Amino acid sequence: MPQRKKPHVVVTRRLPGAIETRMRELFDTRLNIDDAPMSREALTEAVGQADVLVPTLTDTIDAALIEKAGPALRLIANFGTGVDHIDVEAALARGITVTNTPGVLTEDTADMTMALILAVARRIAEGARVIPDDVEWAGWSPTWMLGHRITGKRLGIVGMGRIGTAVARRAKAFGLSIHYHNRRRVAPSLEEELDSTYWDSLDQMLARMDIVSVNCPHTPATYHLLSARHLKLMKPEAIIVNTARGEIIDEGAMVRQIEQGALAGAGLDVFEHEPAVNPRLVKLARAGKVVLLPHMGSATVEGRIDMGEKVIVNIRTFHDGHRPPDRVLPSML
């Protein structure tokens, strides 16, 4: 029996070596050796030639690009959980299946969320700069570099999915009181496990929280979910942490709130216009008001390998004529 032709797979960014090697073994794979984001022209060429495109969040796969796809393109196997950079409806209209890599980044992102909560509340980033930067330090003092205890504080989680739940479990172990706002209330057994309080009104929850963690996906419905009006409801001593997507918060309004002392601070791993970062946020970071990370929430060796393995499973399953396990539909967004 003749061997079936391998699908032509175009990968837009450099992936872990073990994943790239396996993809070369299994598929006719074109890799991005330089790891520079593909230009629009390069993406247009890729969708015109590939059977499978493997993009990342740095690639804009919009309707205009999908319109230029060649007849062979039948699968967009995203390397990542979020698909807000892909026009899933336009892909579906062209008969192109979209998949993602859910579940594998849950623990890593939850770890980073807790790290940012601690970093902002306890001024860890400021303290870490003192000795390496040769800042004059006279030794321990009763009133120097005082932060805030997180035990006993109220944490409001916006989005109680996999990551939000993982954050809640960690936060409960730190002695935080768990509150959450979600499209749907979670199972009673989970609420009991976390001793959590559900708020169907985001307004009501925000006004009462000491810490707010953003853990919902970015969709048209969640764009600027934390708007200027919502941010003004928060207590002036409250802090906000975002490890989801920058577009969920009105970043300009948040900056103004912190500059005016109407919010105590923020811990951000994502930005509304990344990779560009608002210069006013950088200024606030230098003043110790915010902690800024360059989108590191999922950056673990284990997480990246797990993502790659899911991409491979999705491609192989699709190429074998079956529905891939991580198919994304517009109704899911």
UniProtKB/TrEMBL annotation:
Ranges of residues in domain D-isomer specific 2-hydroxyacid dehydrogenase NAD-binding: 114-297
Signal peptide: none
Top-level lineage group: Bacteria
GO molecular function: glyoxylate reductase (NADPH) activity; hydroxypyruvate reductase [NAD(P)H] activity; NAD binding
Gene3D superfamilies named in the record: NAD(P)-binding Rossmann-like Domain
Residue ranges of every copy of the D-isomer specific 2-hydroxyacid dehydrogenase catalytic domain listed in the record: 20-328
A GO cellular component entry from the record: cytosol
CDD domains (alphabetical): GDH (cd05301)
Keywords on record: NAD, Oxidoreductase
Sequence similarity: Belongs to the D-isomer specific 2-hydroxyacid dehydrogenase family.
Name recorded for this polypeptide: Glyoxylate reductase
Gene field: gyaR
